[in-house]
Amino acid sequence: MKVNLVTKYEDSLPLQLIRARDIAMEYFRPVLASNDLTEQQWRVMRVLDTKGEIDFTTLSRESCILSPSLTGIINRLEKLGYVEKKKCEHDGRKSYIHLTAKAESLVERLRPQIEEQYVALKERIGEDRYSELSNLLNELIASKH
Q1: Nearest-CA neighbor of 118 among 100, 133, 103?
Q2: What is the CATH number of the domain that holds 123?
Q3: Is residue 86 domain-resident?
Q4: Which residue range or ranges hold the HTH marR-type domain (predicted)?
Q5: Residue 6: left (phi > 0), alpha (psi -120 to 50), or beta?
């Protein structure tokens, strides 16, 4: 028996995820914009704040930013004094990136403001539903492996 599934474009999971991301980012964009940061710059800084110094390839994977785009973001962050790059002693093709003290101070200053936005987002849909959504998304992500 052949099953014919026709999904309306409004019910397309990728489209729903993009729309949900845009709604979620409405909470965080004002905080970032008021500090002259792009979403991608903040994402890179958060990964580095969490992971510490890491290589470029790992940073690309962890931040979900493709290498060509990440190169530009890292260069801009470096010009702003937020990150430093260093070449691997054993492999000159490999670079490591870490936050500067200036960036660590900024992340520390922004952390409470970002946390307030998470609280507001959770209030919008409810703590339980937020957790449920997060768990479902993590299950989907984990299913790749």
Answers
A1: 133
A2: 1.10.10.10
A3: yes
A4: 10-142
A5: beta
